[in-house]
Task: structure prediction
Amino acid sequence: MSNPIDPAAIRPVQPQGGHHPEAAGPGASRTGGPSFAEVLRGPGKRDPVAVPERMREMMRDITRGERYVDRMIAQASSGRDFSVTELIGIQARVYRYTQELELFSKMVDKTCSGVRQTLQTQV
Result:
């Protein structure tokens, strides 16, 4: 079955006054000012969609660190001898894993506190 509509004949409808907000680029508003999303972000604030993605990245890093520590413990338990260089490398990775875990724990705690405070706010 063929399409009875010729795609070349379809043109976007221009609003009255000839101004088309999409022509100015994404995020442009009809009044020429900042878009609603830009106003919500405010100066110097991050994109709210990027925050969950960053948290997912942190969780992946923490999970990788945990697996690494588990592998090293298993190797040490099985009798593997590590060189001084390997031990320093392991110590550095464990330190980084610990720091990432602490940071993520603080983020979760602050988020929970903020939600709790918001829910307790009297309207």
